[in-house]
Design a protein that fits this description.
The protein is α/β, with parallel strands linked by helices and 303 residues long. It is built from 8 helices and 14 strands.
């Protein structure tokens, strides 16, 4: 029997959450997208033996049959790309409780020296009035501002945006980085993502922040393939492997005195990334770490 008064909640987990955490977060997020979850969150908890497990909590409409959801999840988990991920439990959450939980899960979040990220339902609240609001609607695309890697990228970005700058945001997700740059005074943004579905979310967030669509080139694209221009700022809040793949092309797209911001990597992965970056014609301007997550801002090396 179909029902509009509750949500189905499925929880899936991966053991040994410390190992390859960014890749496992991406795998769990992909499962939520493939099963058309209408909301999801990723978190860690200790099991009985004290080991960290990484969890996905995904919500589905009560209009769906539970058997349909279970079958879809089991079918996806048969794919080798999702090896090691297991279904932990299913349960029912009443609609009113979910609404409350959803809204309370995204309180206004101060970031860096001058920014506050907030969901649009907090727009009229008199909070953090001394900070610039960045409105992001929490959905499936990465980059709500609540992940440490996004906070790192925002903090490194706010310090260097100059009036009239052009920003190139690779793997834009929600669009939070280029939207922030434009609100800080940048004149033009080029935003790319390999997933066309995220572009709809980026456009929604542009509208929430009053961004003029004429100054944004938003399109589907794989890293810097096919891009031949030059920009003042490049941002890439993505995983280690795509960041490394991106490196050889970064120097050619940066204008003199331009900056490249890389995030989405753990502190453990930083040494690997820096060792590769040294041979790509870039040098570190500033590094930043929040929890286990790390990012850096780079400039062209001399010579």
């Amino acid at each position: 029997m179909q029902n509009n008064n509750f949500w189905w909640i499925a929880e899936l987990s991966v053991p040994n959450a410390v190992y390859n955490r960014p890749q496992n977060e991406e795998r769990l997020s992909t499962i939520a997208e493939l099963t058309d979850a209408i909301g999801s969150e990723i978190f860690t908890e200790q099991d009985f033996y004290g080991n960290q497990r990484l969890f996905l909590r995904a919500s589905y409409s009560g209009q769906k049959e539970i058997d349909e959801i279970v079958y879809q999840l089991q079918f996806i988990l048969e794919d080798d790309n999702f090896f090691g991920i297991e279904i932990t439990r299913f349960y029912k959450l009443e609609n009113q409780a979910w609404d409350t939980q959803h809204y309370e899960s995204f309180p206004p979040l101060p970031v860096g020296k001058s920014l506050v990220v907030m969901a649009p339902w907090h727009e009229n609240e008199k909070l953090f009035e001394d900070r610039m609001p960045i409105y992001i609607y929490p959905a499936s695309a990465f980059g709500t501002g609540y992940h440490e890697s996004t906070q790192i990228a925002l903090s490194l970005l706010e310090e260097i945006v100059r009036t009239g700058d052009t920003i190139l945001d690779v793997g834009t997700g929600t669009g939070i980085l280029f939207i922030t740059a434009l609100k800080l005074g940048a004149g033009r943004a080029i935003a790319r993502d390999i997933d066309p579905d995220t572009l709809t979310e980026a456009r929604r967030n542009m509208n929430l922040n009053g961004i003029n669509t004429k100054v944004v080139d938003l399109s589907e694209g794989d890293l810097l393939k096919g891009f031949s221009g030059q920009v003042n700022i490049l941002t890439a809040n993505i995983l280690l492997n795509p960041n490394v793949t991106l490196l050889p092309d970064v120097k050619r797209v940066l204008k003199p005195k331009g900056f490249a911001i890389f995030s989405g990597m753990t502190h453990i992965e930083s040494k690997m990334f820096l060792s590769v970056m040294g041979s790509s014609g870039l040098e570190v301007d500033r590094e930043m770490r929040i929890g286990d997550w790390w990012g850096c801002r780079s400039v062209k090396a001399w010579g």
